[in-house]
Design the sequence.
C-alpha cells in the first residue's frame, strides 16, 4: 500500500530538445508520452531547422536535389516523397521549385529569407496540429519553449496549440512542481535570434525564481546549460566558424551560461533541464540540483531525451534514452 | 559567417543548400587535425619494434611487403565501412551505439563488452611492453653503446623482473589516469607532445640510416661488437651462427607464412579510425572526407613503417637483419639488448647522445598509446552508467576538472588487475596483445555486420544519409560491411590457426565465453533492477514509434 501511494505521488516527465526541424523527432516526442509512459512532455527549445533544400523540377518531369552532399533524382511520386523525407529527417526543409524559381532564389537573398520563413512556419503548424491530434483526449500536455536558434515568428504558432503549453519566461505547474522556463542563450559565434548578455539572463531568471513558492521543489527548463557543468562542453569555434584546433586536435571549452549556473546555485531547484550543446549529453549535480542535458542526434532520426521520475522531494530516477 | 538565407560555402555544405544562422553549423574538423588524431592511436615505432620483425624469425619466407600491403587493404576497408556508417549514424560514441541501434541493444552491449575487454587487455599490454620492450631494452642498449655496465644491468633487471614490470607498468597506467583526471585539455597537449617526440625519433632513425652506407654500418657494428665478443667480424659470425642454428636468412617466398606475418602487422594497423569520436553536424555533408582522412592515416602509417623497413634491410643488410632477429632469443646472440631498430641505429650512429634520444622518443610511444586506450575505456564505462548498466556513480564528473573520476578509477583497477595477470601468466606480452586484438576483432566484425544491415534494419537513417550509393544493385555500405566482416573473420582465423602467434585457443575460448556471459548478465541484471523501479527497460532501449 505504502509503495503504491509512493508511486502515485511520482510524476514522470519526458524531456527532449534541439530537434531542429526533424519531423520524425517531433513525432517521436509527441508519442513518447504513451511509449515510456510519461505524464508530461517538455521540449527545451531549438525546434526549427537550419537549412532549406530546393528540389528543382526539371522539364522532363524529374526532380533533383542535393541531400547531405549527394545528388538525388526523383522520377516518381514515391521517389519524390523519399527525397522530401530524407531532407526533413535531416532537419532541413524541402522546397519544390522550378528552375526559374531556383535561379531567382539563388540571386535574391530577400526571396530566400521569405521562402525559408514560409517553409519553417508551415512545418511548425503541421507539428502543432499533429500534437493536438495525438494528445487529444489525454491529460498529457507538451510544455514547449523556443531556443536561441528559433525565429520570433514561431511564438505565435506555438501559442495556437491546444495541447501545447507555450511557456517561455513563465511559471507553469507540472504536477506538484513549479516550472520556470527560458529559451534564450548567452552570446554565441553565430549571433542567433535569441541571445542575451549574461547580466540579462540572470535578471530574467532571477525574476522568475523569486516568484516561486517552493524553489526547492521546482523544475528549471532552461535551454542553455550552466557554465562548466560538463553539460556545456563543445569544440571551440573561431570567427570563421571553424573548429579551433590546438596541437592538431579540436579544442574543447565550456560554452554554458554563468548566469544560469548562478541562479541554480542560489535557488537549488530539484531538477534543471537543458539542451543547446548537442554533444554534451550527461547528468551533473550542482549542489542538490540534478542537472540534465540529454543531447541531440536529430539528424539520425533518433530522439535523444530523458525520462525523469520526480517525487515531491527528490529525483527518484533519471534515464537518458535514445528512442 | 553564414547569414540568414545565405548560400552556404562549399566547405560548409552541399551546393543548393541555404543555411541560416544557427548554433552548431560549423565547418568540419580540418582533415589534417583528424589525420593527426588517427595517427596518434597506433604509434609506428611500436609497430616496427614489436610486430614486423618478429615475423622474420617466426615465419621464414613470409613476405613483410605483402603483409604490409594486405594490412593496408584491411585498414582501407575499415576506413570505407566506418566512414560510411558514421555518416549515417554520427556522434555515435563508438561501437556500442552503432551496433545497438542497427541490431539490438543487447548485441550492442555484447559488442561493447568485447571491445572494452580488448581495450583493457591492450592497456595491460602497453603497460607491460612499456617495461619489457620500451624501457628495459632501450636502457640496456644505451648502456652497451655508452659502455656503462650499470645501465646494462639496470635494463636487464627492468626487462626480466616481474616486480619492475608490474611496478612501472602500474605507474604508467596510474600516471596516464591522473593526467586524464586532471582534464582533457592538458591530456591532449601532452599527447600531442608525445606524438611529436615519436615522429622526431623516427625522423632521426631515417636520417641516420639514410646517410649510413651498408659498409659503414658493418664497420661500426664490428667495432662496437668486437669489444663484447672479442671477434673482428662479429657481423659475419652472426650470420654464420644463424645458418648453423638452421635459420634460413634468404628463404624462398612462402604464402603460408605470409598470412601470420600479415596478422602480426595488423595488430598495430587496424586502429586509424578514432576520429569517429569527433562530432560535428556539417561533417555529414561530406562523408568522403572522413573516409579519405582515415585512409590517409593508415596509408602514411604503413608507408612510414615500410620505408623504414626497407632502409633497415638496405643499411643493416638483409641476411644479417634476418639472422640477428632469428638469433635474438638464442644463446648465440651476443648482446644483452634485443636487436630493435633503435639499438642498431644507435650502433650505426655511434653516439651515446643518439642512443639516449632514441630511448626517450621510443618510450614516448607507450604513454601515447596508453592515453587513448584509457580514454576509450573510461568513456565506455561512463556511457554504460548513463544507460543504467553501471551504478549512476560512474557517470558523475568532477565539478572542477569535469573528468569522470569514478569511471577512471574503475578503469585503473581493472587494468592493473589484468596487468598483474599478464605479468605472471608466463606467456609474455605478446600473448596479451594477440588476445586483445582478437577480442577487439569480434567487436569490429559486429560493426561490419551492422553496417551491412543498416539499409535493411534502419532504412530511414540510411536513406537520409549520404551513403545511399549502390554498386551492382547492392548498397555500398552493405558491401563494405560484408567485406570487412569477412576480412576480419579471416584475420581471426589466422590468429587462432597459427601456433607461432602464441594464442592459447583454450584460454581464448574461455575468455570469450566469460565476456559474452558477463555482457548478458549485466544487461539482464540492469533490466531486473529497472523493472523493480517501475521502469520498462525494453521500452527505454527501443525506438519510439513515430506514427
Sequence:
Amino acid at each position: 500500500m505504502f509503495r503504491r501511494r509512493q508511486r502515485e505521488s511520482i510524476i514522470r516527465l519526458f524531456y527532449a530538445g534541439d530537434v531542429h526541424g526533424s519531423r520524425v523527432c517531433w513525432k517521436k516526442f509527441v508519442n513518447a508520452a504513451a511509449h515510456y509512459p510519461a505524464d508530461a512532455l517538455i521540449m527545451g527549445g531549438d525546434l526549427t531547422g537550419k537549412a532549406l533544400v530546393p528540389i528543382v523540377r526539371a522539364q522532363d518531369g524529374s526532380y533533383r536535389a542535393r541531400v547531405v552532399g549527394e545528388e538525388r533524382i526523383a522520377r516518381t511520386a514515391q521517389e519524390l516523397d523519399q527525397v522530401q523525407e530524407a531532407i526533413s529527417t535531416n532537419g532541413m526543409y524541402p522546397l519544390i521549385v522550378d528552375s526559374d524559381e531556383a535561379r531567382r532564389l539563388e540571386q535574391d537573398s530577400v526571396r530566400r529569407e521569405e521562402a525559408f520563413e514560409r517553409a519553417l512556419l508551415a512545418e511548425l503548424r503541421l507539428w502543432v496540429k499533429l500534437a493536438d491530434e495525438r494528445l487529444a483526449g489525454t491529460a498529457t500536455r507538451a510544455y514547449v519553449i523556443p531556443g536561441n536558434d528559433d525565429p520570433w515568428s514561431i511564438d505565435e504558432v506555438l501559442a495556437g496549440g491546444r495541447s501545447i503549453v507555450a511557456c517561455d519566461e513563465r511559471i507553469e505547474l507540472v504536477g506538484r512542481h513549479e516550472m520556470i522556463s527560458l529559451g534564450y542563450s548567452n552570446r554565441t559565434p553565430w549571433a542567433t535570434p535569441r541571445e542575451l548578455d549574461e547580466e540579462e539572463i540572470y535578471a530574467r531568471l532571477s525574476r522568475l525564481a523569486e516568484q516561486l513558492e517552493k524553489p526547492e521543489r521546482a523544475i528549471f527548463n532552461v535551454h542553455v546549460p550552466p557554465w562548466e557543468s560538463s553539460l556545456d562542453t563543445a569544440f571551440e569555434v573561431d570567427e570563421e566558424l571553424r573548429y579551433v584546433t590546438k596541437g592538431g586536435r579540436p579544442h574543447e571549452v565550456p560554452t554554458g551560461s554563468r548566469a544560469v549556473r548562478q541562479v541554480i546555485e542560489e535557488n537549488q531547484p530539484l531538477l534543471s533541464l537543458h539542451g543547446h550543446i548537442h554533444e554534451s549529453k550527461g547528468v551533473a549535480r550542482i549542489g542538490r540540483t540534478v542537472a540534465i542535458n540529454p543531447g541531440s542526434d536529430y539528424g539520425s532520426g533518433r530522439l535523444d531525451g530523458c525520462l525523469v521520475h520526480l517525487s515531491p522531494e527528490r529525483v527518484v530516477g533519471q534515464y537518458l534514452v535514445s528512442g | 559567417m553564414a547569414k540568414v538565407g545565405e548560400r552556404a560555402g562549399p566547405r560548409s555544405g552541399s551546393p543548393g543548400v541555404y543555411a541560416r544562422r544557427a548554433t552548431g553549423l560549423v565547418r568540419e574538423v580540418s582533415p589534417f587535425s583528424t589525420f593527426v588524431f588517427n595517427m596518434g592511436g597506433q604509434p609506428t615505432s611500436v609497430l616496427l619494434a614489436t610486430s614486423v620483425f618478429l615475423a622474420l624469425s617466426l615465419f621464414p619466407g613470409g613476405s613483410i611487403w605483402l603483409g604490409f600491403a594486405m594490412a593496408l587493404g584491411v585498414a582501407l576497408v575499415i576506413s570505407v565501412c566506418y566512414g560510411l556508417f558514421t555518416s549515417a549514424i554520427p556522434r555515435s560514441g563508438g561501437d556500442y551505439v552503432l551496433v545497438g541501434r542497427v541490431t539490438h541493444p543487447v548485441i550492442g552491449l555484447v559488442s561493447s563488452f568485447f571491445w572494452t575487454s580488448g581495450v583493457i587487455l591492450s592497456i595491460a599490454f602497453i603497460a607491460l611492453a612499456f617495461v619489457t620492450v620500451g624501457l628495459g631494452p632501450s636502457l640496456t642498449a644505451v648502456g652497451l653503446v655508452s659502455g656503462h655496465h650499470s645501465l646494462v644491468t639496470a635494463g636487464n633487471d627492468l626487462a626480466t623482473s616481474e616486480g619492475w614490470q608490474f611496478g612501472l607498468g602500474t605507474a604508467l597506467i596510474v600516471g596516464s589516469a591522473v593526467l586524464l583526471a586532471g582534464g582533457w585539455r592538458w591530456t591532449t597537449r601532452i599527447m600531442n607532445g608525445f606524438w611529436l617526440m615519436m615522429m622526431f625519433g623516427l625522423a632521426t632513425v631515417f636520417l641516420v640510416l639514410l646517410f649510413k652506407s651498408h659498409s659503414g654500418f658493418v664497420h661500426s657494428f664490428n667495432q662496437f661488437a668486437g669489444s663484447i665478443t672479442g671477434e673482428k667480424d662479429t657481423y659475419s659470425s652472426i650470420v654464420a651462427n644463424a645458418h648453423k642454428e638452421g635459420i634460413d636468412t634468404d628463404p624462398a617466398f612462402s604464402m603460408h607464412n605470409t598470412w601470420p606475418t600479415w596478422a602480426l602487422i595488423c595488430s598495430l594497423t587496424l586502429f586509424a579510425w578514432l576520429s569517429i569520436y569527433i562530432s560535428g553536424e556539417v561533417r555529414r555533408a561530406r562523408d568522403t572526407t572522413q573516409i579519405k582522412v582515415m585512409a590517409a592515416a593508415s596509408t602514411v602509417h604503413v608507408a612510414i613503417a615500410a620505408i623504414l623497413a626497407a632502409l633497415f634491410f638496405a643499411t643493416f643488410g638483409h641476411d644479417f637483419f634476418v639472422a640477428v632477429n632469428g638469433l635474438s632469443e638464442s644463446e648465440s646472440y651476443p648482446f644483452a639488448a634485443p636487436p630493435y631498430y633503435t639499438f642498431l641505429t644507435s650502433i650505426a650512429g655511434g653516439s651515446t647522445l643518439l642512443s639516449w634520444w632514441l630511448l626517450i622518443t621510443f618510450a614516448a610511444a607507450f604513454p601515447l598509446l596508453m592515453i587513448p586506450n584509457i580514454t576509450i575505456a573510461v568513456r565506455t564505462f561512463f556511457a554504460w552508467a548513463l544507460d543504467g548498466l553501471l551504478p549512476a556513480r560512474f557517470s558523475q564528473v568532477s565539478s572542477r576538472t569535469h573528468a569522470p573520476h569514478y569511471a577512471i578509477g574503475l578503469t585503473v583497477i581493472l587494468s592493473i588487475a589484468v596487468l598483474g595477470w599478464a605479468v605472471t601468466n608466463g606467456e609474455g606480452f605478446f600473448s596479451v596483445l594477440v588476445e586483445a586484438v582478437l577480442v577487439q576483432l569480434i567487436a569490429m566484425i559486429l560493426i561490419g555486420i551492422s553496417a551491412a544491415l543498416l539499409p535493411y534494419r534502419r532504412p530511414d537513417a540510411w536513406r537520409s544519409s549520404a551513403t545511399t550509393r549502390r554498386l551492382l544493385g547492392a548498397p555500398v555500405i552493405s558491401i563494405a560491411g560484408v567485406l570487412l566482416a569477412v576480412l576480419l573473420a579471416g584475420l581471426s582465423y589466422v590468429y587462432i590457426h597459427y601456433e607461432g602467434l602464441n594464442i592459447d585457443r583454450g584460454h581464448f575460448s574461455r575468455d570469450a565465453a566469460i565476456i559474452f556471459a558477463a555482457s548478458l548478465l549485466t544487461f539482464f541484471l540492469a533490466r531486473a533492477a529497472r523493472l523493480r523501479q517501475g521502469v520498462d527497460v525494453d521500452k527505454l532501449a527501443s525506438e519510439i514509434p513515430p506514427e
Remarks:
- Residues 105-146 of chain B form the longest helix (42 residues).
- The first strand of chain B starts at residue 6 and ends at 7.
- Residues 214 and 315 of chain B are 4 Å apart (CA to CA).
- Chain B touches chain A through 85 residues (CB under 8 Å).
